[in-house]
Amino acid sequence: MKHDIPEVEIFAIGTELVLGRIQDTNSFWMSSQLSELGAHVNRMTILGDEISQIVEAINTALQMKNRFVIVSGGLGPTPDDLTSTALAQVFGVELAVHEPTVEDFMRRRDISDRGEVSDGMLRMATVPEGAEALPNPNGWAPCIVLTNPHTTLFAVAGPPREMEGVFTAHVAPAISKESNVSRAAARLAVTMYESEVSPHMMQVMEEFPHTYIKAYVGMRSGEEHRLPVDVVATNADADTAKITLEMAVERLTELVTLAGKEVVPLD
């Protein structure tokens, strides 16, 4: 069954994230990809490596019947990688070694004796019973897929390069199949203050109902203090979305120029 706009919830797992030691770039990257795929992100949440918190948060997301839940992080070989354990509790199953994943590890590491497979690799190959374990094209921890009648949950590796590879290979195709909409976006810069450009933004959104326009005051830069502005067009057809975007950008440019100001493409 297709959903016009599949609803998605994202979780980033890692105590290093909540401590501010590293930045959660995964959620930002995935949300931009999901937008282009025609999905809607309801929430993005950062959680520490605490099983009870992870279980509670994911249970809530499942109760909300999000069509997709994506969890990044916590799938590595160290003791604080607890995502698989938490997911097993959520779905009420035991953990089990996924033998096809172990065999893949052995092939990739040129190991002929299973006894030579390290404890760390076995830990990464251990998933909730009944889950799919899809190969990671840029690393080792597989993509874990669990489903219930309403939701498909993907758990992906935390390192950004691995996350992007798994998302592109496994998550994006699944979501694309269930979306009936496409989005096209462009980023511009205007030599206006937000209060000046806002009426023009509102006018364009009224003239083109399937557009969303947002200015970013905190990103002003340059001697002219150019204000970045995003224009996003949504339509069931990708070509129509692109045409709508071009028309909306042209109209906004016209209005800003008539006001004696300048528009500069940033993309």
Question: What does it look like?
Answer:
- With 267 residues, the protein is α/β, with parallel strands linked by helices.
- It folds into 2 domains: 171 residues, MoaB/Mog-like domain (Molybdenum Cofactor Biosythetic Enzyme, Chain A, 3-Layer(aba) Sandwich), CATH 3.40.980; 84 residues, EIF_2_alpha (Alpha-Beta Plaits).
- The protein is built from 9 helices and 12 strands.
- The relative contact order is 0.13.
- The model has no long low-confidence stretch (mean pLDDT 92).
Brief summary of the model shown:
The chain has 267 residues and is α/β, with parallel strands linked by helices. The chain has 9 helices and 12 strands.
Estimate the strand proportion.
Answer: 15-25%
| Intertermini distance | 35 Å
CATH topology of the largest domain: Molybdenum Cofactor Biosythetic Enzyme, Chain A
Number of domains: 2
Low-confidence stretches: none
CATH class of the largest domain: Alpha Beta
* CATH architecture assignment of the largest domain: 3-Layer(aba) Sandwich
What is the number of helices?
9
How would you sum up the global shape? Answer: elongated
Topology:
Blueprint: E1 7-13, H1 15-18, H2 25-36, E2 40-47, H3 51-63, E3 68-72, H4 83-91, E4 95-97, H5 99-109, H6 119-124, E5 126-128, E6 132-134, E7 143-147, E8 152-156, H7 160-177, E9 182-190, H8 194-207, E10 211-215, E11 227-235, H9 238-258, E12 263-265
Parallel strand pairs: 1-2, 1-3, 3-8
Antiparallel strand pairs: 4-5, 6-7, 7-8, 9-11, 9-12, 10-11
